[in-house]
Amino acid sequence: MSKNILLGITSSIAAYKIYELIRLYKKNNFNVRVVLTKNALNFVSPLVLETLTNEKVYYNQFDPRVDVEHISLVEWADIFIVAPISANTISKCAFGFADNLLTSIFCAFLGSKKPIFLAPAMNKDMYNNPVIQNNINKLKQLGCDFIDCENGFLACGTEGVGRLADIELIYQKTKRLIYQNKKNNCKKILITLGGTKERIDSVRYISNYSSGKMGMAIADWAYNLGFDTTVISTIDFKRNYPILKVNSALEMLEELKKQDFDYLIMAAAVGDFRAENTFEKKISKEDIKDSFELKLIKNPDVVQTIAKNKKENQKIVGFCLTDKDLIACAKSKLINKNLDYIVANEVKTALNTDMNKVTIIEKSGKIISIDLDFKDNIAKKILEVVCD
After folding, report:
1. What pTM did the predictor assign?
2. Do residue 145 and residue 112 come from a single domain?
3. 344 pairs with which residues across the strands?
4. First to last CA, the chain
5. Pairing label, strands 31-36, 116-120
6. 20 to 30 Å CA-CA from 366: which of 38, 97, 248, 347?
7. 156 labelled catalytic
8. Handedness of CA 339, 342, 348, 351 (dihedral sign)
9. Pair (254, 314) in one structural domain
């Protein structure tokens, strides 16, 4: 069932970024309607917004109409997001002003107890103004969710806190507010992702073709569904949950040993081998005659090492990537590594694509096949199976 998002835009130069946010919502099958303050019209075009949403754009509180728009829009929406929200609108909302269509909607939405999500953007001195901070805190106490401003270069030419939060972070926070199941809030889920990098010298390493997309999709859905989510990753990316950066298999293993979890999903492509000897500086070809011999040694099996000491209440999910005897290979790893589930996928469908098909095998022997689909959809299905 599609979810309905009511998106408010106020007068901030950051308003132009909201075109991309709408694109993300529409790409993921959300219904979007937009309400503007009149001053926001100086920064965004109603025609562009109507084209992106395929819906009427609302900004005049007293347009001729059949219904009362600020009430009908509240009834239609599942969530109200204001991004960017200016210092002026924050202050109006904190004190219950309803002097334009957007603030009237906010007033009614707050009374409806539906989720409200606010993403400020303004000059750093305005943001640090104690009056504005008090008003932000007041709205938080009233139940509004905020995503804080980022530090960076501002449109006014200064640098500091005041930038609109990253659009991807706003999008992910929205999904969590809509989809989260609060019973998951106390459950810790740990996800590894990306291909490990085994150092050779100061500029070279051994790695693999893993893009990390499958693990990232699982982590995003775990967060969206309300789990206390932590990621151990070889890839740099921004999210609202903690991301612990590692490079090698040994680094990943050491980080895993420090973590507590209810569920561990080992989606990372961990290298089987590493160089026996590494070089502090770059190996120069001038120092090599005709050939160079690199001796490889086995890495420890990371998931097997962790699973040896798993607690009774913990569940561990492994991944199996192969190009032959998929089910037999996966079943063998499931047993030998003491896993609760294993997700089997083939090289030809899994690597560097947005789609995949997988087979989930449970410790009991039950097999669940998931046909070719976008990795985002597969990630949600995997969590539904393994996180009962």
Report:
1. 0.84
2. yes
3. 320, 359
4. 22
5. unpaired
6. 347
7. yes
8. negative
9. yes
